[in-house]
Write the structure tokens for this entry.
Amino acid sequence: MQIREYTNRDLPDMIRIWNDIVDEGIAFPQEELLNAETGAAFFSSQSYTGVAEEDGRIYGLYILHPNNVGRCGHICNASYAVDRSSRGRHIGEMLVKDCLDRAKETGFRVLQFNAVVESNIHARHLYERLGFTQLGTIPGGFRMKDGTYVNICPYYREL
């Protein structure tokens, strides 16, 4: 498995994987699904977009971008998406590790996650194992697809 920068030929798989998570409604804040046009624009607008690829198949991806501007522009944010049929293979860990390296190379000093859903225990355990610190809990900070509100846990790690 290699983690590399995406190319346009990866977009159909990337959009499918991303949309699966958006449609699931339990992790990403986005509600609108991507299509070929909006997906190409979205992924190209990031500071970096990486994919996990093996034998020509895309298993996951991440986006990296500034979390803020100006005096806080040294803090970045990222999102990770793994194909649901490939979960449990530590692809998310490979994506996060590559993202940490890429963020530092890009000149960011801190990687911050604004909205990790409290019930996303696999992501939370991964982040904690990789040295991220939880900043607290925001009660009811995330609206699930079913309309209920659950807590979110911001995390950060210095690069």
The chain has one domain: 2-113. Residues 2-113 form a domain with the Aminopeptidase fold (CATH 3.40.630.30). Strands lie at 2-5, 48-54, 57-66, 75-82, 110-117, 133-134, 138-143, 149-158.
